[in-house]
Specification:
The chain is α+β, with helices and mostly antiparallel strands. Helix content is about 15%, strand content about 20%. The protein contains 9 helices and 12 strands. The structure holds ligand MTE and molybdenum atom (MO).
Length: about 325
């Protein structure tokens, strides 16, 4: 988002690293198709080293859109801790150590605890959630995430009456994560939601994608996914979750408050100060179709989430 131009260059589209050989990809696609016709998805074998996840339930909210190819989801990323180019996170993925890993849940709750990542993998049944994702820069993807509603962890933590917001803190390890040695952002990366947003069943505590544990570049071992908001609200590699009374300070809002609001709901009617948000480019589409798709209110999830914002001025609270 630091980069000024709407950065869709053919080189970025054609030079993506390929994670799957063509034969592996076809095999995986076929396995996926037959599994879904049985009403469930089996873990998808990837050529890339990546642990498979236990069988999981399929998404309750199916969508029509085609899945974005795995190599795009794992090869075209924003994860500034691992570099600012879209290909940096995949290239530098091994810099992130994801085991052992704990997540501390604290603040305005009656049950503060530090959870091991293996506990969190078993806290609730894993589900596949196929979500549209929209980056504030103007590109989008359709990703089969795996996880469970964030509200499962929040409920277990027993919020007090004072808890009004939730704050997420991403990993901080400047010794290994070269991006954190550069003051492009204030580290660690912080994000936040209003508590009722975080309690919405669509808000996902995400542990995997495409039938496997998350690749590091996508926010392993645990990230948040909020599909009706711009991508930067979905903090990666989370180590701390805090329930708080006041609206938390968040990384992009602090960096450029005029451009990145606290809410950052996907909204085609509220432009970014430097570009329109009315349309988007679906990654995987040919670059000639650049920004051909209409962006949908709340990224297409208005039926589910619009009531969270009834009566709110969405231009003011952008
Ligand atoms: N910790 C952290 N989380 C982050 C980011 C980041 O740089 N650091 N980038 C955000 C942005 S701008 C987007 S669009 C999504 C991209 O997630 P993906 O690469 O899994 O699609 O992650 C978000 N979460
Ligand atoms: Mo983004």
């Amino acid at each position: 988002m630091i980069r000024k131009a709407l950065d869709v260059r053919p080189s970025e589209i054609t030079d993506k690293p390929t994670f799957l050989g063509r034969r592996e990809f076809m095999k995986a696609t076929l396995a996926m198709a037959s599994a879904s016709s049985m009403g469930m998805l089996l873990p998808w074998q990837q050529a890339q080293a990546g642990q498979r996840l236990q069988a999981y339930k399929q998404s309750a909210v199916p969508i029509e859109d085609k899945l974005t190819p795995y190599e795009d989801v794992a090869g075209y990323n924003n994860f500034y801790e691992l570099g600012t180019d879209k290909s940096d996170p995949a290239r530098n993925a091994s810099r992130l150590t994801t085991r052992p890993w704990t997540v501390t849940v604290e603040g305005e709750i009656n049950n503060p605890r530090t959870y091991d990542i293996d506990e969190l993998l078993k806290l609730a049944p894993l589900e596949e959630r196929i979500y549209r994702m929209r980056c504030v820069e103007g590109w989008s993807m359709v990703i089969p995430w795996i996880g469970y509603s964030l509200n499962a962890l929040i409920k277990r933590s027993e919020p007090t009456g004072n808890a009004k917001y939730i704050e997420f803190t991403s990993v901080y390890d400047p010794g290994k994560l070269a991006g954190q040695r550069v003051p492009i952002l204030k580290w660690p990366y912080m994000e936040g939601l209003r508590l009722d947003e975080a309690m919405h069943p669509l808000a996902l505590l995400c542990l995997g994608m495409y039938g496997e544990i998350l690749p590091n570049q996508n926010g392993a071992p645990l990230r948040i996914v909020v599909p009706w908001k711009y991508g930067f609200k979905s903090a990666k590699s989370v180590v701390k979750i805090r329930l708080v009374e006041q609206q938390p300070i968040t990384t992009w809002n602090r960096a450029v408050p005029s451009e990145y609001g606290f809410y950052s709901n996907v909204n085609p009617n509220v432009d970014h100060p430097r570009w329109s948000q009315a349309t988007e480019r679906r990654i995987g589409d040919h670059w000639l179709f650049s920004r051909k798709r209409k962006t949908l209110m709340f990224n297409g999830y208005a039926d589910q989430v619009a009531q969270l914002y009834s009566g709110m001025n969405l231009k003011k609270f952008f």
